Amino acid sequence: MVTVKRRGNSSTDRKNNMSKIFEDFQSEGGFPQEFMVGVGISMYQNSGCGGAKTNWSKFAETRGCCGLGGCKVHCGESPDDCSPDFWNNYEDDIRLVKSLGSNCFRFSFEWGRLEPERGMWDESAFERYSDILDCLERHGIQPCATLHHFVHPWWFESIGGFDEVENLELFVGYCKKVFERFGGRIRLWLTINEVAVVPYTGYIYGNHPPGKPGNFHKAGILYRNLLIAHAMVYKALKAMPHGKHAKI
User: Which of 32, 87, 107, 183 is most buried by a 10 A CB count?
Assistant: First the structure.
């Protein structure tokens, strides 16, 4: 008979083990200086859309409950009523980011805020993003920008959105506008957040806009178009000033 001594498994033991691992790691040089530790948000999830009509605001208002996923709007009729409001509290939030020891912050540009109507750009929204970047720079935090995080203007959705390949140039135009303004201040860029999630949740599971579950054919078309859009944006931004050094 062999007796096996169990390792300690108390919270104190685990804490001591992790401390020893961290000490060993630090003694061996730790993380390289350029290693980034960050946190992230998306603007709609943290600030709503500022009254602009988007595919998500329309979906939340008309559905109340977002399909099979069961996510509900618990306070008010719109996410604008109950978000943490990073848009107006960004200085406090970025101070908290810094206090965590983070040196990178991922956020999203909200197309609906910047171009609430087709061809009509809201300069005040661009200025607010500039203020946010100023604040990140003051705290020594590198920005990482997402150009599309699930949300786009309702005017774009109403003409077919990403389902229609001929609409992709409109998305490219928006991305170029943002990069023209901020390409010199942001090195890290993401084109489309979770590109495979968008068609799955929209057309297979149905708990995101447009909320039409079980439509695998439409999901495939949307997925293809999103990949095409990514390639188009990548090529367009790389050809612009600051594009050569941008990580997209």
Answer: 107
